[in-house]
Specification:
heterodimer; A: alpha+beta; Nucleotidyltransferase, domain 5; 9-stranded mixed sheet; 6-stranded mixed sheet; 16 helices; 30% helix; B: alpha+beta; 3 domains; 7-stranded antiparallel sheet; 5-stranded antiparallel sheet; 20 strands; 5-oxoprolinase (ATP-hydrolyzing) activity (chain A); Oxoprolinase-like (chain A); ATPase_NBD (chain A); Hydantoinase_A (chain A); 5-oxoprolinase (ATP-hydrolyzing) activity (chain B)
């Protein structure tokens, strides 16, 4: 027997999923997270699932881990005491940042403080020009002097970012060598290795984040590996990257900046894999939990990836997807639009008498009013309880009894009364405002990037996602909604089907009319060799390694690039017309116009090296049958039906493959509740996924 | 919910968010597709949506100075073309005497129709690096009449029912130095209005033409109500404040900006009529731009979060006198009026601070510095214009230290990355950083000043600079000290240093280095009330010297960089008495 094990650590729960590689049988376990030491929850989940499923530790072939440890370290300020070294004259690179702010009229705005304070930001004497030419040679003595100061400061990690190092890494490499001599044992992150990208602040920020979280992530992964070994699991530990592939724990410890969005990426990958297996290549993924909702876009089976991302940025304040605050990261990240609308988002009335929802959240503590943990502010979850959508006696399988009276009173007192609405109108208003914000998010990820949401299947998961998904599909006019089995732990299953992945890039600024094909081919070859060697050293057989080549392109004069996949085969220049055609088409799709007469230029080459890992098979439901029998009925509010309607309630675990039933309906399972609106039909597919479409059966 | 209630609190909130999201989508399109460094890296552009009457209903997170000028631009458009708008039309304008704010800011507005009914306008404004005129970059402090400043476009039809009006494009192309850059940025603006058109039409389809109009109007009235409520809570009163510009654009002289602000009931009046007469150079502001500055000042003082609609403007009255620096008349030059706008903002805020002291921060750097470099490229590939926008720092607020290096509250500029500048232009950025001891001392310290220097690598480079605050520093408030003064220096290859004025146009040679120090932010509150630990932190970070810790703050430090608590208390008590 051989199994794969996935562990996904979230804010409240740590989810474990285990899959039998031959039969596709899935087991799940959920334990409380242990924020003080996440490895405790990690091991508790591992031990629980092995015991429950009767699997021996030695049968685990690999362990995949999704974690927010990297992001949390930054947000909570638990970062290494770091040093920063840059070119003479630019000491304040981190302190100044881009000088932007995310809000128009907020005069109390405070800049995000740099991860390395000014007293540990030092300079060395050297200077490169924009072509990589040496204008001033590196002065070794200035490096040793800086090293001595950092040693005296007791730094635990050092980041180096010199001007134009993306095009010529020689000076950075030399600085790295000297630092290694002067500061033995201290991890050094060079910008030319972490993110060899144009624009000094973005590159510096990425490198500094890498440096700041290296010690904490390294210790964390080491600790988990040790505990796994003690428990008899000797399989390799793989870690989810922000871009959706996995890398080995060794690689993760060196370049942890590639895993800052490790947690959310898993849900998108799970959606993509499920879609590929079911024949839905184009998907919008919708993940709604307690505090936020996240939407992602998958086209032709591949999640869309962005390079403009910030850790710890303010929600909303972004132009062009470029966040105007927080710490920018210039590594590939799965493109997600995240908004402050979750089950715990608080509804309130502003001073002008409008109903508002979020961004403040009641979180898990005190939580919504209906949790009876001292919460007094009405939330989205409270509204759903009052509307009859959530079952007060079967929330998390009945582990939490919901206080429907408390929820109703809070909505009456704080919202309905002041607004002059009745309590149901107010509750429905909360849900509609939250839904509209999420439809906006769906538009942001699709329409704003040139896609029509109506061409996509909506895949909804997370504890609260299936409660709202039908309304979203309706309002965004998406024809098909898919609710996977166990939506509450769906993200963890995504970890089981990911490939080994390594992203690399090289800056190469050339106009297309001056392009030298052999130069491009050589650069790609070099990236491929390095990528293949790295994966091979991690045990990936050569024949399972594939490459994806892409080029960042723009019109001459523009400053922002589009990433265009290169046609297959060695690049000899004959593909240039096809490449240009793809670029113009992509520009037209993204921005609504193309200028084929204008000159174009290449900015960077991007290579993704993929080590293919076989996807686990889907497992069909044991029983088939077209009839679904409700376990009970209750009154559920649907505005489109004019109010409360007697609604059948189904037990998801008793649904059979091929069953069909009409909305209005509620489907309940341990970790989520699915709301089906009137005039929609549910079909249970072979594997137990619910397919919800408009119309009656 | 019934159909005929004036405010449906749910739907209005939903539509308000949708409109804001469309405005941001417009901004994204411009930002990503623009060609000039000033727009795409410096982010000097804006986007907003208006209803069918021309009232603003949403603004993107872009330049407030532009956004506040939209109402006047719209009035002119409607007066001229209001009865001739057709689906597919697009209009262009940059004329300060036809609703514009200076020739560099090109407004591109598109009326949006649902079927045959006008439902609103998509509006964009972008700062263009060159619009022709006597010098590369067009804007120069020593321009003395508008005819030197570039091509002047009163409101013109740019697209006629979807077809480009070639004559207008041809005229623009023939009058600017780098047509590809100007037309490229205009394409970005047009594309943004197309994006908004589609999105607005979807809203009209969903809510109906009348339904959407009612919701937009409701949103404006809601905004007005919120703003009036807060102003009503401020104490009634009148206060005045005088601030100065260093120059008339041509030579050193004090140019007075005087603001009198009256809070009465739920309204605010700002009177700028006692400001200096129009100056010889190009610092003269349009009335509309002054309006935008006053809107910004009042808006920034609000505690309540309000939608970004023109309802916020309604409780505010602005008085200006034609023929003054705050109200340019023909043929006055206005290309560099930005600095006047920043000073109007400072003066109005200085007055408001006396009426509601805990809502207003000390003065920031005094406005972005513009340094426009232009020359023939040494490799023979033609002319370049590098529009460098140096972004400043904040004054201290009643709650916090001023941000060290952050775009002015009235602007939304970003700095231009050194690697971008050096890759695109024959120029070399020598240094860029913060200046220690430049923030005004206070209980809360003013932001440190920014310095940046450039070495030119061409034999003859035209350099136009607009800076300020070399004679009149950014003020502190409530006992806080002013920020440091700005300076301009030219260093020739042999090391000779020449001091330059705040505003100048000149030609510099190969290897010359231009060094600019901006002003520092003002402090807030008595420096002796600053927590000695905060002073120590600044000393450790090298932001405040040990000497200044003593002289400015009365804080005595031990040699091991700890606070001498007893010594400090004694020193501070001595100074207070």
């Amino acid at each position: 027997m051989s199994v794969r094990l996935a562990i996904d650590i979230g804010g409240t729960f740590t989810d474990a999923t285990l899959i039998d590689e031959e039969t596709g049988k899935v087991s799940i376990a959920k334990v409380l997270s242990t924020p003080f030491d996440p490895s405790v929850g990690f091991m508790a989940a591992t031990e629980r699932i092995l015991t429950d499923s009767g699997v021996l530790a030695g049968d685990v072939r690999f362990v995949v881990h999704g974690t927010t440890v990297a992001t949390n370290a930054i947000i909570e300020g638990k970062v290494a005491r770091g040093g920063f070294i840059t070119t003479d004259g630019f000491r304040d690179l981190l302190e100044i940042a881009r000088q932007t702010r995310p809000s128009l009229y907020d005069t109390q705005f405070e800049k995000t403080p740099p991860l390395v304070p000014r007293d540990r930001a030092l300079t060395v004497i050297e200077r490169l020009g924009p072509g990589g030419e040496v204008l001033k040679p590196l002065d070794d003595a200035s490096v040793r002097e800086a090293a001595a100061r950092l040693r005296a400061e007791g730094v635990e990690a050092v980041a180096v970012c010199l001007l134009h190092a993306y095009i010529n890494p020689a000076h950075e490499k030399r600085v790295g060598e000297i630092l290694a001599e002067e500061l033995p044992g201290i991890p050094i992150s060079l910008s030319s290795e972490v993110a060899p990208e144009f624009r000094e602040y973005l590159r510096a920020s990425t490198t500094v984040i890498n440096s700041a979280i290296r010690p904490v992530v390294g210790r964390y992964l080491e600790n988990i590996e040790k505990r796994l070994a003690e428990a008899g699991v000797t399989a390799e530990l793989l870690v989810m990257q922000s871009s959706g592939g996995v890398f080995t724990s060794g690689a993760a410890a060196r370049k942890p900046v590639f895993m800052v969005e490790s947690g959310p990426a898993a849900g998108v990958i799970a959606s993509a894999n499920l879609g590929s297996q079911l024949g839905y290549p184009d998907i919008l993924s919708f993940d709604m939990g307690g505090t936020t909702a996240k939407v992602g876009l998958i086209q032709k089976g591949s999640p869309s990836i962005t390079k403009d991302y910030s850790v710890g940025s303010h929600a909303g304040g972004a132009v062009g997807g470029q966040s105007l605050s927080g710490y920018p990261v210039r590594t590939p990240v799965i493109d997600l639009v995240e908004i402050g609308a979750g089950g715990g988002s608080i509804a309130w009335v502003d001073s002008g008498g409008l109903l508002r929802v979020g961004p403040r959240s009641a979180g898990a503590d005190p939580g919504p009013v209906c949790y009876r943990r001292g919460g007094t502010d009405p939330t989205v979850t409270d509204a759903n309880v009052v509307l009859g959508r959530l079952n007060p006696t079967y929330f998390l399988g009945g582990e939490i009894g919901l206080d429907i009276e408390g929820a109703r009173n809070a909505i009456q007192e704080k919202l309905a009364g002041p607004l002059g609405l009745d309590v149901l109108e107010a509750a429905n208003g909360i849900v509609e405002i939250a839904n509209a914000a999420m439809v906006n998010a769906l538009h942001l990820i699709s329409v704003q990037r040139g896609y029509d949401p109506r061409d996509f299947v909506l895949v909804a998961f997370g504890g609260a996602g299936p409660v709202h998904a039908n309304a979203l599909a309706r309002d965004a006019e998406m024809p098909t909604l898919l609710i996977p089995a166990s939506p509450g732990i769906f993200s963890a299953t995504g970890l089981l089907g990911t490939d080994l992945k390594r992203d690399a890039s090289a800056t190469l600024m050339r106009r297309f009319d001056e392009l030298n094909a052999p130069e491009i081919e050589e650069s790609f070859r070099a990236l491929e060799e390095a990528g293949a060697a790295e994966l091979a050293s991690e045990g990936m057989p050569r024949e399972q390694i594939a490459f994806i080549r892409q080029i960042d392109m723009r019109y001459v004069g523009q400053s922002y690039e589009l990433t265009i996949p290169l046609p297959q085969g060695a690049f000899d220049g004959s593909q240039t017309p096809e490449l240009l055609a793809r670029f113009h088409a992509e520009h037209d799709r993204t921005y609504g116009f193309a200028a084929p007469a204008e000159a174009t230029e290449c900015v960077s080459l991007r290579l993704t090296t993929v080590g293919k890992i076989a996807k686990p098979p889907l497992r069909p439901l044991d029983e088939t049958g077209i009839t679904a029998t409700p376990k009970e009925h209750r009154q559920v509010y649907f505005a489109e039906a004019g109010g409360f309607v007697e609604t059948p309630i189904y037990d998801r675990y008793r649904l059979t493959a091929g069953a069909v039933f009409d909305g209005p309906a509620i489907v309940e399972e341990f970790d989520s509740t699915i709301v089906v609106h009137p005039h929609y039909t549910v079909t249970v597919d072979t594997y137990g996924n619910l397919i919800i479409r408009k119309g009656n059966s | 919910m019934s159909e005929n209630t004036t405010i449906d609190p749910v739907t209005m909130q939903i539509v308000g968010n949708a409109l804001a999201s469309i405005a941001d989508e417009m901004a994204t399109t411009i930002f990503r597709t623009a060609h000039s460094t000033v727009v795409r890296d410096g982010m000097d552009f804006s986007a907003a949506l208006c209803d069918a009457r021309g009232e603003t209903v949403a603004q993107a997170v872009t330049v407030p100075f532009h956004l506040g000028s939209v109402p006047v631009a719209m009035d002119h458009l409607l007066a001229k073309w209001g009865d001739k708008l057709r689906p597919g039309d697009v209009f262009v304008m940059n004329d300060p005497f036809d609703g514009g704010i200076h020739l560099q800011d090109i407004f591109i507005f598109r009326p949006v129709f649902y079927e045959e009914t006008l439902i609103g306008f998509a509006t964009t404004t972008a700062h263009h690096g060159d619009v022709g005129g006597r010098l590369p970059g067009s804007a120069a402090c020593d321009n003395t009449e508008i005819f030197q400043e570039g091509i002047r476009l009163p409101w013109l039809r740019l697209f006629d029912r979807g077809e480009p009006v070639e004559a207008v494009f041809e005229v623009i192309k023939a009058n600017v130095r780098i047509p590809r850059m100007t037309l490229g940025d205009m394409s970005a603006q047009i594309a943004a209005t197309t994006v908004a058109e589609r999105a607005l039409q979807e809203l009209a389809a969903r809510y109906g033409v009348d339904g959407l109009a009612n919701l937009m109007n409701g949103l404006i009235e809601h905004t007005e109500k919120l703003v009036r409520q807060e102003i009503a809570a401020w104490p009634d009163g009148t206060a005045s404040f005088t601030d100065y510009l260093d120059s008339d654009g041509i030579e050193r002289r004090d140019v007075k900006i005087h603001a009198t602000v009256t809070i009465h009931g739920d309204e605010v009046t700002a009177d700028l009529t006692e400001s200096a007469p129009m100056v010889r150079g190009s610092l003269n502001s349009t009335r509309s731009f002054v309006q935008a500055c006053v809107y910004q000042a009042v808006r920034a003082a609000l505690e309540v979060e309000v939608p970004n609609t023109s309802g916020a403007f309604r409780p505010i009255t602005i008085l200006t006198k034609p023929g003054t620096i705050a109200h340019v008349v023909m043929p006055g030059a206005s290309s560099m009026r930005g600095v006047t706008g920043f000073r109007v903002l400072d003066a109005v805020q200085g007055a408001i601070a006396q009426l509601i002291p805990t809502r207003v921060g000390a003065a920031g750097e005094g406005g972005n510095t513009l340094a426009v470099f232009g020359a023939e490229r040494p490799d023979g590939t033609g002319r370049y214009i590098f529009y460098e926008l140096v972004v400043g720092t904040w004054g201290a607020t009643p709650r916090n230290d001023g941000n060290d290096g952050l775009t002015n509250p009235a602007s939304l500029a970003a700095n231009i990355p050194v690697e971008v500048a050096e890759s695109e232009f024959p120029i070399f950025v020598e240094s860029y950083g913060l200046i220690p001891d430049s923030g005004g001392a206070g209980q809360y310290r003013g932001g440190l000043a920014i310095q940046r220097s450039w070495r030119c690598l061409t034999p003859e480079t035209s350099l136009i600079v607009r800076s300020d605050r070399a004679a009149h520093p950014p003020y502190g408030l409530q006992g806080g000290m002013p920020g440091s003064l700005s300076s301009n220096t030219l260093v020739s290859p042999d090391g000779t240093e020449t001091r330059l004025p705040s505003m100048f146009s000149m030609t510099i040679g190969d290897g010359d280095t231009y060094i600019h120090h901006m002003a520092g932010g003002g402090g807030w509150g008595n420096p002796l009330d600053r927590d000695p630990q905060d002073v120590l932190d600044d000393v450790i970070d090298g932001k405040v010297s040990r000497h200044a810790a003593f002289t400015d703050y009365g804080v005595i430090l031990h040699d091991d960089l700890t606070v001498d608590t007893d010594g400090t208390t004694k020193e501070r008590d001595g100074r207070r008495n």
